[in-house]
Amino acid sequence: MTGDWGPRVRLRIEQFAPGLCRTDTNLGRVVRARADAAADGVDLLVTPELSMTGYDVRDAVHALAMPESDAPWPELAEGPDLVVGTIERDAGFVPYNAALHLRGGRVLHRHRKVYLPTYGMFDEGRWFGRGGEARAYDAGGGWRVGMLVCEDLWHPALAWLLAAQGASLLVVQAAAAGRGVVAGGANGGRFASWGAWEHLARAAAIAYGAYVALANRVGVEGPLCFAGGSMIVAPDGAVVARADDLDEDRIDAELSLDAVAAARRPYAHLRDDDPRLVARELARILGAG
Amino acid sequence: MTDAARDRRIAEVVGAVARQALADRGRTRIALIDDGSPEAALAVRLLAGRLGGDRVARVTVDENLVDQVAQELGTDWRLAAGEVQRMQARLVDDALPAHPANKTALLLGGDLPPEPLLPLGDLWATDVLALQGGWSAPGEVEALAEAAGGIDALDGALRRLIDGRDPAALDSLDPAIAGRVREMLAAGSASRRHPRIVPKLGARTLCADLYE
What is the pLDDT of residues A105-163, one digit of tens each? Predict the structure, then answer.
C-alpha cells in the first residue's frame, strides 16, 4: 500500500512501548511494524503518542527535538501511511509534541498537541510549546482525517472543530497511564481510568458519525505503567477492535465510508450543526470577558 | 473488578515498574528489606512472582549484628535493626534496595525511607490487609489506628482526604485523632515535597530542573 486510499481503508494500531529517549530503537521498532503492516495490506498504521521519543522526556526535550521537516525519516519512505509521535521544533526553537501523518516518507499533515496536561502527575506545559491549530485534511478516497494527541480528546471542542471540517476519521494518539487498580470498579480487571477514555472516544464517534482510532502506548517510565487498551471505534459507537491492557499488541479494522454514511443516515447531528451559531456565541462570551 | 483481577493487576503493575527500575539502573535484582512484616511478605510475593525468586534478595534481620550496633551506639534496638538492614540492602551486590512500607505508614511515619523503590507505596494498609491478611506500620501509626477505631476508620478517612481530595474527610474521626493525623501528615510533608535537597547554585540543578 502506498497511500492510494479508496472508500475502504485498512487501519492498524501498533500498541508498543517506546523507549525513553531511545530514538534509534524506537525508529527501528516503527520500521519493523511498518514492514509487517505493508505485508498485511494495511493502509494506515497508527502508533502512540511520542512513539519516536518516549513520553517523560523532561529537559531532554531540546536534545530530542527535530527541526520541522517535510521528510523527517528516510527510513520511512516505503510502505503504508504512518502516524508517528515525535518532538519537533519550529523556526523559533520551540519544541512541540507532534503527531505526523507520513505518506511515502513525507509529512501529509502535522498536528501539534494543543492541550498540554500540567496538573497532577503531568508536567507537559513545562517542556512543550502549545499547538494552535485543529485542522482536518484530505487523505484521499473521500476520507477526511483529523488528528488529536491524548489530552486533546478531553477537550471536546477540538473533536468538534475537526468534525466541522468534515472529518470522517479521528486519529488519537495517547500516552495514558493506568490508574485505579484497586478501586477499579466492574471493568473486568481493566484500569478504572480507561472507562473515561472509552466514553470519550465512543461519544465523539457517535456525535460526529466518524471513526475514532485511539492508539495508546504500553510500557513503564518511572512509576507509571501505560495502560494500553487501544481501540478502534466505528461511526455508530461500537468498539470494533480493542488491544490488550499493558502488553504490546496490534489491532486492525477495515474502515468504510459506507459505514460512515450508514451511521449518519438515522441522525442529522452533523448536518444540523451550526458553526456560525457557535462562533456568534463564542464571540459574545469572549467579548463579555 | 473481581478480587482475582485486582490482585493480578496489582502484581502486573508492581512487577513491571520494578523490572523497569532495574533495567534503568542496570541492576539485576531487588534487595528487599524484610522486617518480617505482612508488607515484606506481600512485596516478596508480588516481586518474586513477576521477576522470579532469584531476582529478589530478602535482607532479614541479623540479630547479632543489630545487638552490636545498638550497644555500640546506645540506640533503640528496633531503630538499629532498621538501619542495619538498610546498610545490608545497600551492600547487596548488583541490587536495587527496596522498602516494603505501605502508603498509610509512609504518609504518617515521618520522612520517606531513602530506598529508591517502594513497591507497596501506593497500597493502603487496608489494601495490604485484604491482600495479605495483615498489615503493619510504625508503633505510633498502629496506636493511632487503634485510637481511631481501627485501621478501616483511619484508612477510610485518609483515602477520602488523599485520593478523594475531600478537605472535610478527617471530620469522620474524633477531633483529637484528626488533629494528630494532620500533625503526622505534616511531619513528613517536607520529605515528600523534596525527596532530595540540592541547594540551587547553578543554571541547572539536580532534583530541581535537571533530569536529563
Answer: 999 999 999 999 999 889 999 999 999 999 999 999 999 999 999 999 999 999 999 99
- Phi-psi sector, A135: left (phi>0), alpha (psi -120 to 50), beta: beta
CA separation for the pair A51, A45 (Å, rounded)? 12
CA distance A20 to A61: 11
Cell of B40: 515484606
Per-residue pLDDT, A190: 66
What is the bridge-based pairing of β-strands A143-149 and A137-140?
Answer: antiparallel
Burial class (CB in 10 A: 0-12, 13-18, 19+), B78: middle
CB-based contact B29:B54 (threshold 8 Å): yes
Cα–Cα distance measured from residue A279 to residue A232, given in angstroms and rounded to the nearest whole number: 31
Distance CA(A50)–CA(A188), nearest Å, equals: 29
- Side-chain-side CA neighbours of A13 within 13 Å: the count stands at 32
Interface test with A, best of B6, B8, B9, B132 (most A CBs within 10 A): B9
Chain A CB contacts of B2 below 8 Å: 189
What is the Cα A62 distance to its own chain's centre? 23
Q: Are A275 and A164 in contact (CB under 8 A)?
A: yes
- For B10, the closest chain A residue by CA position comes to A181
Alpha helices in chain B (DSSP H): 3-25, 38-51, 63-73, 77-91, 103-108, 125-132, 139-147, 151-158, 175-193
Contact between A53 and A87 (Cβ < 8 Å): yes
Chain A: residue whose CA lies nearest to B121:
A223
What the block records as the C-alpha cell of B87 is 546498610
Model pLDDT, residue A186: 47
Rounded CA separation A216/A200 (Å): 14
Closest by CA position to B98, among listed B136, B130, B57, B48: B57
Residue B200, pLDDT above cutoff 90 = no
pTM of the model as a whole = 0.92
Q: List Cβ neighbours of A58 (8 Å cut-off, separation of 6 or more).
A: A123, A127, B211, B212
Which residues of A fall within a CB distance of 8 Å from B162?
A: none
